Amino acid sequence: MQVAIPHDLGREEVRRRLRENGHSIGDNIPGGMADVATSWPTEDRMTLTITAMGQGLTGHIDIEDSQVLFEMILPAALGFLKPIVEGAIADQGRRMLEPPKE
Q1: Which residue, of 5, 56, 78, 81, is most buried by count of CB atoms within 10 Å of its CB?
Q2: Residue 24 included in any domain
Q3: Which domain holds residue 9?
Q4: Could you give the CA distance from residue 15 to residue 98 in angstroms, rounded to a whole number?
């Protein structure tokens, strides 16, 4: 599943905001019991591993010139949640790109 979020920030600024706001990735996962691990194998890719409610999701975020592309692998057992997960990714992704709140 892929979700594209357009931006006009420049790659450097997107990287900075993702690094600063990455801790909030699990905030919209129901139950509030998500374990989220991130890493940066390249400067323009952040990998994600999310574990919640006994299920694991993996994916990555690619930073492009005019969009951020979220790609998540949804287990077949959770396929029915695809529209909900896509909406949550789009919403959370936009929030992650916002300037940090002071």
Answers
A1: 5
A2: yes
A3: 2-97
A4: 12
Residue 35: CB atoms within 10 A of its CB come to 11
Residue 102 lies in a domain: no
Cα-Cα-Cα-Cα torsion 10, 83, 21, 56, nearest 10 degrees, comes to -120
CATH at residue 29: 3.30.310.80
DSSP structure string for 48-97: EEEEETTEEEEEEEEE-SSEEEEEEE--GGGGGGHHHHHHHHHHHHHHHH
Residue 19, both tokens: 């690094």
Write the pLDDT tens digit of every residue in 40-66.
999 999 998 888 777 778 899 999 999
Confidence of residue 26 (pLDDT cuts 50, 70, 90): low
